[in-house]
Design goal:
The protein contains 5 helices and 2 strands. With 135 residues, it is mainly alpha-helical.
Length: 135
Amino acid sequence: MQRKLRRYFNRTLLLYLLFFSVVFAAYWATGEGHPNVYNYYVRLSDAFLHGRLYLTENPPWLNELIPWDNNTKWYVVYPPLPAFLMMPLVAVFGLTLDQTLVSLFFGWACCVDIDSGDLRPYAEIVYQDGIDITG
C-alpha cells in the first residue's frame, strides 16, 4: 500500500515538475518575460519589510504613484497582494529581484490545479484498501 502510494506521488510530482518546466519555458520564450524597470511590487515589498505602506522615493520611470505629505511619501495605486507574496524573496534579494520571473512562477502556479481529477485515483486506491479518507 505505501509503496503504491509513494510511487503514485513520485510520478505525480515528476509530472508537475515537467509541466512547470514546459509552461515556464513557454511563458519566458513567448511573452514579455524579461526584466523591466517597472518594479512597483518589489519596491512596495521592500517598504513593507521596513514597516512602511509607502515608498520614500519616486523614480521618474514609475509614473503611477500617488504623492502625499509634500511629496515625501508615494503610494502605489495597485493592490498589495503581489507585494506580500514577494516579501520573502525581496528580503533575500533586495531591490534587484526580477519581478517578472516571480510573476511567471505564480502564473504557472495558477495553471496547476492541485484539486483536479489527478488526485482522484489516489482516493480510489485508498478506499479500495479499506481506508476512507475522502470525507
